[in-house]
Amino acid sequence: MVKSSRSAGKRGAVAAQRRERRRQVLAQRASKRGRQRQRRKNHQYHAFLHLKRNQQEVARRLSAGHVDLVTLTDWGFVASFLAFLDQLAYRVLLDLDGQGFVRVMIPLVRLLLTYQLKILLGIPSMNLVPTKLFREIALLELIGYTTTQIRSGFSHRGNLACGPMHKNTLADALDKLTAEELERVLNGTAKRLVAHGLFAKSKGCFALDASDLPTPPTYSGRGMVTKTHQKLTKDKQIVEIEEHVFGFQVFVVYEVHLRLIVAAKVVPIQERETRHTLDLVRQAIRNLGPGLLRILLVDRGFLDGADLWSLKHSWGIDFVVPSKAPMHVTRDAQALARQDADGESIFRASREGVRKRGQDAQDRREGQVTVAGIADLTSFDPYGAADHAQGANRKDFVGNPLNALVVLSWQGEASPLGEEKVFLTSLPISAPLVILDLYDLRSLIENTAFRELKQGWCLENYPKKTEEAVRAHVFLSLLTFTLANAFATKRGQTLAHHGIRRQRAEQQSNKVIIITGDSYAIFEIEEVFILLGIIPTRCFQVDPAQVRKRYGLSSLA
After folding, report:
1. Co-location of 61 and 159 in the same domain
2. Going by DSSP bridges, is the β-strand pair 318-322/346-351 parallel, antiparallel, or unpaired?
């Protein structure tokens, strides 16, 4: 018995020693991984900062004839844009774990920034990346590539005609990013913008909407939805045609005045809007902080009584949403709107328009509108907590009050009886025109966000035919769009008002980037000649005397 007890004790001690050694080994491995990760971060961070803009130093070296690299660029503002990203510490957000990557030869941060440069430059196709992006040597050096990497690449595999990598390497990198990693970058970016005061002038008005991203049926992971649309035949008859649409859809929460995206999600095209309403709003509140999102403007696809109740009574967010024609609350509001205003439950307001003559030679009032506000309607049965609508058929059921806005006339033309547009809102209805003007802002998400992204930012030009690549491309496009708009407010310009396409058109091709040592500078072409001592007889861009004075050169004789 004693011997057996001693053997058991000895085995227990040995097992404990093994567990301790195993714990130490795991701790050492974890520590090693942490040191490697930190070294990688430091290496990436310093790689981005190895070039700093210094106009005076580069001008001095240029005058002395010491230059390492000279290249033309149409995108001088990109350097300032990258400096703006440094202020946000944006590159830290791009330091993802890269769960889908087996081997990482090029830092993931640099890959993502390279693709965002592609988006910013408006390059629609991956086939154009080698000629349109990889030849922008100065821009590539600004995001951390060395001259050797740009000329020879990171690997001797393949046959690189131009650039640090094959174009497919860039596309494959997007294919390996997970939805969680992309959402983490977007959410972190929104939080950084809030922390740096980019939402200081926000009026608290946000729009939530979805937009279809059609694709061919060959894309993996795509959804399918059947849509019905009307078509006019040769016999002048209207027929309904069913069409199968394949692809995805993107949801965004959008600040309509500042034009910044604060939450997003990409899902198959057939998923209903109401399935994602609360998740997106919840994430937007986390990103913005409490109290900043005060009003939410949504389309009728998001009309769900339980969701609207949660917005108002769980988070204190007011809403405006169109009602649907067959609903009881719609018919009640239309009937009450025809009664005289009493200043308590029915309110009437009109706005005079400008008289214009239309193409049909009939007078009409451009901008004229008449609306009615109906207070405390209780006929929207689903408006309440999750189990509220279950008792709608009971005799003692009482609906929760909700306000309605009815449009009685628009552009000087009266709305047909029973066809008036109706909006539901939790906001006070005593000034109904205010509610109408407020909902008009929702159109900004269609015109200044989705339309701008699709037409000017190549949102629907995907790098690969996979769900992962589509999602990564969409998220990086949303990020670049949001950061560009935020950058525009920082610089005091109006990029958000006229879009990236006009900004590209306004860029002149007389900019020169000069790199020498660890500094770079951007000059007008005339400035370069002046610094070299060659004074053009006629200068259109700069004043030679001012240039020489600015850079401390001797004055002209």
Report:
1. yes
2. unpaired
Dig out the tokens for 426 from the structure: 């939790």
| CA neighbor of 114 nearest in space, from 190, 165, 80 | 165
Q: Within 10 Å of residue 159's Cβ, how many Cβ atoms?
A: 7
| pLDDT tens per residue across span 64-75 | 888 877 776 655
pTM assigned to the model: 0.78
**CA dist list (Å): 322 to 133, 231, 303, 407:** 45, 26, 8, 11
Q: Is residue 77 located within the same domain as residue 121? A: yes
Q: Is residue 293 part of a domain?
A: no
Per the CB < 8 A criterion, the answer to whether 348 and 392 are in contact is: no
Count of residues in the chain: 557
* pLDDT tens readout for residues 409-424: 988 788 999 899 999 9
What is the separation of C-alpha 421 from the centre of its chain, rounded to a whole number of angstroms? 31
407 and 325 part of one domain: yes
- Domain range for 4 is 1-48
- Which residues, given as ranges, of the chain have pLDDT below 50? 1-2, 41-49, 158, 361, 491-499, 557
Neighbouring-strand partners of residue 69: 515
Strand 205-214 with 295-298, pairing: parallel
